[in-house]
């Protein structure tokens, strides 16, 4: 069989800590498949070019079979040229005591500039995943400044939160991580997010049962579980003095993998995507929903029951996203 044409994949912030964890997984074939050749187009800022050059050398030295070329640059027009997929990681991370939205003024301008560059040189079919915080609002701004690329091609990462929720439930039940599925993250990748297990299932003693039934501890699921997931990023910063990187890179790979490969029948994943008003959310914010994916197109899962507890939490995180949107638009003006 003839070899596939290489995909052009951009990673921004490629000299940073998430970049260092992400690039190897990507280059090995964990995201686009082990038969998919890749051209990696790596972006960082000029002062970090020497470090980026070191990363490029290391990628070369891995002698990985899928890598056709690795380009390191500080020019977004070079990094985004003809790309099929972008991991927009490059941005300032928060430090202890900050909320992610405290990064808004500093980071949102990066995404305005990068939206503009994507608009000029990326393929119109490019799939853009924003990881840099505040991820939802950065993705919104990036798309706003790339009007020739469909809005559906932009998303922000809440997969790390989904993975955290899954791992917390698995630990509570004493089952392997693979025995929990269907955890949903609603809203913002922030401390207002709503990790929701009311539609999740767990495999206990060989049988898949609803998580609320398996855990049988409503107080935990509506209390400690939610706050643990909401505050996990801060807990990692407090412990490492650096924000999460290995788990963030893994989640970015999971997100992009599923966007390209699709979700298995009957399963969904959480992604922050443009709200179309589903579940009475304000239209036009980047809100995390459960989605199914087929042929590279995501669709918001419809018809899930939302009780009063969930409604209140979903509205609170939507309100924060609307406020962030106003602030970001003002910062870019
Ligand atoms: P880091 O400081 O280690 O690396 C960031 C890199 O981005 C640096 O090399 C920096 O030079 C580069 N950079 C800055 N401005 C840039 C620009 N305009 N263009 C290209 N590159 C640029 O940070 P990190 O730990 O890798 O985190 C990166 C971002 O990801 C942060 O904003 C962090 O908060 C966010 N993050 C998000 C999630 C999530 O779940 N969405 C999880 C973890 C971290
Ligand atoms: C995380 O969730 O770990 C990241 O968004 C980093 C942070 O600032 O919390």
TrEMBL record:
PROSITE patterns: MDH. The keyword NAD applies. Its EC number is 1.1.1.37. It holds the Pfam family Ldh_1_C. Residues 158-329 form the Lactate/malate dehydrogenase C-terminal domain. NAD(+) binds at residues 13-19, 44, 107, 131-133. GO terms for molecular function: L-malate dehydrogenase (NAD+) activity. The active site is at 189 (proton acceptor). It is an enzyme of class 1 (oxidoreductase). Residues 8-154 form the Lactate/malate dehydrogenase N-terminal domain. One of its GO terms (biological process) is malate metabolic process. Substrate binds at residues 94, 100, 133, 164. InterPro entries: L-lactate/malate_DH, Lactate/malate_DH_C, Lactate/malate_DH_N, Lactate_DH/Glyco_Ohase_4_C, Malate_DH_AS, Malate_DH_NAD-dep_euk, Malate_DH_type2, NAD(P)-bd_dom_sf. It comes from the Eukaryota. It catalyses: (S)-malate + NAD(+) = oxaloacetate + NADH + H(+). Keywords: NAD, Oxidoreductase, Tricarboxylic acid cycle. Belongs to the LDH/MDH superfamily. MDH type 2 family. PANTHER family: MALATE DEHYDROGENASE. This is Malate dehydrogenase.
């Amino acid at each position: 069989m003839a070899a596939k044409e290489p995909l052009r994949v951009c990673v921004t912030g490629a000299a940073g800590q998430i970049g260092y964890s992400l690039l190897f997984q990507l280059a090995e074939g964990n995201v686009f498949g082990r038969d998919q050749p890749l051209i990696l187009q790596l972006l960082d800022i000029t002062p970090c070019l020497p470090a980026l050059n070191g990363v490029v050398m290391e990628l070369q030295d891995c002698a990985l079979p899928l890598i056709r070329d690795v380009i390191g640059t500080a020019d977004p027009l070079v990094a985004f040229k003809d790309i099929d997929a972008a991991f927009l990681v490059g941005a300032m991370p928060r430090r202890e005591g900050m909320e992610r939205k405290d990064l808004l003024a500093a980071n949102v301008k990066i995404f305005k500039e990068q939206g503009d560059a994507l608009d000029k040189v990326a393929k119109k079919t490019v799939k853009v995943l924003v990881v840099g915080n505040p991820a939802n609002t950065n993705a919104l701004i990036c798309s706003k400044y790339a009007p020739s690329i469909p809005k559906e091609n932009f998303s922000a990462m809440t997969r790390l939160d989904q993975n955290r929720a899954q791992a917390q439930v698995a630990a509570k039940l004493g089952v392997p991580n693979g025995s929990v599925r269907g955890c949903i993250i609603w809203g913002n990748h922030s401390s207002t997010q709503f990790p929701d297990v009311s539609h999740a299932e767990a495999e206990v003693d060989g049988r898949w049962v609803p998580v609320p039934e398996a855990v049988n501890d409503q107080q935990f699921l509506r209390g400690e579980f939610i706050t643990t997931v909401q505050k996990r990023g801060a807990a990692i910063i407090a412990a490492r003095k650096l924000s999460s990187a290995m788990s963030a890179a893994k989640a970015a790979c999971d997100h992009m993998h599923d966007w390209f490969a699709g979700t298995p029948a009957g399963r969904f994943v959480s992604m922050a995507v443009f709200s179309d008003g589903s579940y009475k959310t304000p239209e036009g914010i980047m809100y995390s929903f459960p989605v199914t994916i087929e042929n590279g197109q995501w669709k918001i899962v419809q018809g899930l029951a939302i009780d009063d507890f969930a409604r209140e939490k979903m509205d609170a995180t939507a309100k924060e996203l609307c406020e962030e949107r106003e602030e970001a638009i003002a910062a870019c003006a």
